[in-house]
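Q: Got a minute? One more chain.
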Amino acid sequence: MEAQDASIAALSSSRVLAFLATSPQCRCVNTSRSPMSTQHFKSLQIFPPTAHCRNTEILITLKNGNTVCVDPEVNWIKPIIEKVLKRRYVPNTKNTVS
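A: Always. Here it is, folded:
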């Protein structure tokens, strides 16, 4: 009986560890406030808050392959985000029928 209890405990522990390893959480542990030139940006990703992470997260992948998490409250990033969002949500007028 003790061996069975130990097996169940080990199985339960491995399931908990597997769940913790795969559960969603914040992507950014630390954020940068330092200004960066957009010339070095390869991509910019914005992740809104979720049930698993209360923070808005901004991840910038640089052309050198590094990824930087940026504090969404710094002044230099706000106009960049606005520009990206405007470009993303511009209605497509080329395919409209008159």
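A: Strands lie at 41-47, 57-62, 67-70.
Q: Perfect, thanks.
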